[in-house]
Amino acid sequence: MEYRSILYKKEKGRLTITLNRPRALNALNREMIEELLHATRQASGDPEVRVLILTGAGRAFCFGADVSEFSRQIAAGTSDSGMVLLQKVQEVICLLTSIPKPTLASVNGFATGLGLDLALACDLRVAAQRAKFAEAYISMGLIPDGGGTFFLPRLVGLARAAEMIFTGEPLDAPEAVRIGLVNRVVPAEELAKATENLADKLAKSPPLALGRAKQALWKNLGGDLESALRVEAQGQKVCLESHDHREAVQSFLEKREPVFRGN
User: Fold this and answer.
1) Average model confidence (pLDDT) across the chain
2) HEC sequence for 49-62
């Protein structure tokens, strides 16, 4: 597929998907949503991709849905197509949490509404100091529809999540890292390098173990301890029988860098 609204760059085990409508602050329109879904599906099944990075071009990560496009659909009496697109966005959200490889949001600027939800669906978030975060749906008379009511309480607690959703007021990057919304904050000019360094570290880790750890983390978010222990035990059994585990032990004994194959 030829992409027009996103950039797709694969290098050294890293796949960087860049939302590329900078003049529209990377607002999600039909074309971008469909391209993002295609690219995420492709990354999920690509053995060369060890880590997926999601970022935005220009001064925004993603300003949410393209209100102008969706308002035109409503005026034309085709608002039901908006629900079809929402289902596709929600599939992207689910893919980001379920693909068996780490996902990083490199938040270069505004992450608003559905844009914030995309960042929250990633496993880790690195943000520029200029970044702003807001669940701004309420200003449009809407509720979060990209998983915000699921992700936020688990990251920042119920009271803070309710405040963000009810008021729509933005957080700056220092406050976002303080409350656990993002993992790291760096100067804007260092964001790309900081993200790549973290991605490279993950790309060199055993992919099978990373995938199983991620699966256990997401699956156990709403479960009880006994269920969590069962999921961990099942994943550990697979890891113990893997080449990567044997290679990790052997390389440790031989005092060399391990070479992981993902099996």
Assistant:
1) 91
2) CCEEEEEECCCEEE
- One of 1.10.12, 1.10.8, 3.30.1490, 2.40.10 is the CATH number of 207-254, namely 1.10.12
Q: Give the C-alpha separation, 76 to 96, whole Å.
A: 33
Residue of 64, 5, 12 lying closest to 38 (CA atoms)? 5
The helices-and-strands tally (H runs, E runs) of the chain is 11, 10
Burial of 239 (0-12, 13-18, 19+ CB in 10 A): middle
pTM over 0.85: yes
Confidence of residue 230 (pLDDT cuts 50, 70, 90): confident
- Cα–Cα distances (Å) from 51 to 63, 167, 262, in that order, read 24, 34, 13
Kindly report, residue by residue over 74-104, the tens digit of the pLDDT. Answer: 556 655 566 788 889 999 999 999 999 999 9
Q: What percent of the chain has pLDDT over 90?
A: 72
Both tokens of 172, joined, read 């700056």
Assigned CATH class of 6-203: alpha beta
Q: What is the pLDDT of residue 71?
A: 65
> 203-226 as b/e, with b when 16 or more CB fall inside 10 Å?
bbbbbbbbbbbbbbeebbeeeeee
